Amino acid sequence: MSDSILLKARFAAAPESLKPMRAALASALGRAGCTQEDVRDIVVAVNEACMNVIQHAYGNGCRCAIREFVLDVDKIGADVEIRITDFADPVNPAHIKPRSLDEVRPGGLGVHFIHAIMDEVCFTAPDDGQGNRLVMKKRCQ
To answer: Chain centroid to CA 19: how far?
Structure first.
């Protein structure tokens, strides 16, 4: 499959948006030829990232006019590139770190899962400089 856009969708920054987001993402990854295992893992990582947007980017007193996130999924060679763009106040990527696995307690492992599952994870500035953009890449088998 050549380079192609698999998905471009906007979702409300609300927990009830996660189920339709996961379904749309799984469908796009299936079209990209990802294995069921890759689909499952990538959906977990993206769900964690989107939940972090909902809980942290928009949940910390953000006075944002737009409370949405955009999910872009592209096939680039053998890789799937996923971009999550929000419209919240910019965050310092240096402050987003996985919690130590020695601190076992419920919650707080999303960043660890994202980095463990995906091949590349980085923050870039959105084109208009507003909000935040997380870029994740995974080579599908």
So the answer is: 14
CB 21 within 8 Å of CB 45: no
58: nearest Cα among 114, 15, 8, 99: 15
Cα distances from 120 to residues 4, 52, 107, in angstroms, run 19, 18, 23
Question: Any bridge partners for residue 136, and if so which?
Answer: 82, 121
Q: 52-105 pLDDT, tens per residue?
A: 999 988 886 677 788 999 999 999 999 999 999 999 888 766 666 655 556 665
Give the span between the Cα atoms of 68 and 113, in whole angstroms: 23
**Where are the chain's structural domains?**
4-139
Domain 4-139 carries which CATH code? Answer: 3.30.565.10
